[in-house]
Specification:
45% of the residues lie in helices and 15% in strands. By secondary structure, the chain is of the alpha/beta class. The strands form 4 sheets. The chain has a 7-stranded mixed sheet, sandwiched between helices. A two-stranded parallel sheet has the order 1-12. The termini are far apart.
Length: 389
């Protein structure tokens, strides 16, 4: 039976990792993989994470299952970090998931089960978004979000496209630090999006994967909170991979906001049922770490301080890269006004290949660059190579 299957192409990002690892040049630079890197090229473990893990090692008495919903305290504390006081707590139902991808998959499955046949996805977007939604059986419509050549939002075109959406359609939005473009939605943009979502009867699915890496923990949640305060229903997918550095622990959550407490409870029960048939029980270790950090004043402050230092480092790298590019390629200097780890540069796949082969500078063929992977000591070299490309 398996002989009838054709071999699937390798994931481009995974193939990029393999090519980088095989490169023996000592001055090679990885600007592709979507993890935070410090100046030495390491992806550090937060001090607060280490302290919380040590506490768990000392006090945890069992590795028994925790149930499909997970630790309620984790869900409550994480939601306060993300949603604040935007909506009444009894209108929100949450389930812990294996990472942000697991949250998105459950959200897509819930939309499908509730009668929504399609979801609107901005272009460009994180490549795995489309795969997740299609695998859940949703038809995908697209709206233009960002002009790569001009390095600018295409917001009016976005609103025009969403104006054709039908009641019950889902619409995917990035809470902050858009992946892959770094483009920023301001308060006015979020208000206009709320207007069209309300007028068309759409259900927003907000992907919150980088809170704290853009303008700060509170600022990065402002657009999300303003929107969910206005709409009757929404889904919020949360990842702890970047904000807590818990990449391999696969820690996330999906929250369903209902029109009433009863509607939220019903949505939550379906999320639990979907989780049960998908992966049965969620991993606990990362969630326990997040729960303890958010529940301990000293650990939380230390985590926030380290996260803020990372955010400031990325912002400084953006500013310096923009200065280095402004004279010869003014349009790419727009990276200074973008936020988060990523920007999408207007360079071709051929030029990207030239950078890999000739300079040992690795980024995906799309032109997405991980700003956090750029060592300051090599910034001038990378800038010169990008100008050439």
């Amino acid at each position: 039976m398996f002989a009838t299957l054709s071999t699937q192409p390798a994931d481009p990002l995974l193939a990029l990792i393999g090519a980088f690892n095989a490169d023996e040049r000592p001055d090679k630079i990885d600007l592709g993989v979507g993890v935070y890197r410090d100046e030495a090229g390491r992806t550090p473990i937060f001090r607060a994470v280490k302290a919380a893990e040590h506490r768990l090692w000392q006090t945890q008495e069992s590795k028994a299952y925790i149930g499909p919903e997970c630790d309620r305290l984790f869900l409550e504390r994480l939601w306060r970090l993300v949603g604040g006081q935007a909506v009444a707590a009894n209108r929100v139902a949450g389930v812990q998931t294996p990472g942000g991808s697991g949250a998105l998959r459950l959200a897509a499955e819930l939309l499908k089960r509730a009668g929504s046949g399609r979801i609107w996805l901005g272009l460009p977007s994180w490549p795995n978004h489309a795969g997740i939604f299609a695998a859940a059986g949703l038809a995908i419509e697209t709206y233009p979000f960002f002009d790569v050549a001009a390095q600018s939002l295409t917001f009016e075109a976005m609103l025009d496209a969403l104006g054709r959406a039908q009641a019950g359609d889902g619409v995917l939005l990035h809470a902050s630090c858009h992946n892959p473009t770094g483009a920023v939605l301001g308060a006015g943009h979020w208000r206009a999006l709320g207007d069209v979502i309300l007028s068309r009867g759409l259900v927003p699915l907000i992907d919150n994967a980088y809170q704290g890496f853009g303008q700060g923990l509170e600022a990065d949640a402002a657009g999300l909170r303003g929107l969910i305060a206005r709409v009757p229903e929404a889904l919020v997918a949360v990842s702890a991979s970047k904000s807590f550095g818990l990449y391999r622990e696969r820690t996330g959550a999906i929250y369903a906001l209902g029109t009433t407490p009863a509607a939220a409870e019903a949505a939550g029960s379906h999320l639990v049922a979907l989780a049960r048939t998908g992966y049965s029980m969620p991993p606990d270790h990362g969630a326990a770490i997040v729960r303890d950090i958010l529940g301990d004043e000293a650990l939380r402050q230390d985590w926030q301080d380290e996260l803020e230092a990372m955010r400031r480092r990325i912002a400084a790298l953006r500013m310096n890269l923009a200065k280095a590019l402004a004279c010869t390629r003014p349009v790419i200097a727009a990276v200074a006004a973008q936020e988060g780890m990523f920007s999408l540069l207007p360079i071709t796949a051929g030029h990207v290949l030239d950078l890999r082969q000739g300079q040992g500078i690795y980024l995906p063929s799309s032109g997405r660059i991980n700003i956090a992977g750029l060592p300051a000591q090599h910034l001038a070299r990378v800038a010169a190579s990008l100008v050439e490309a």
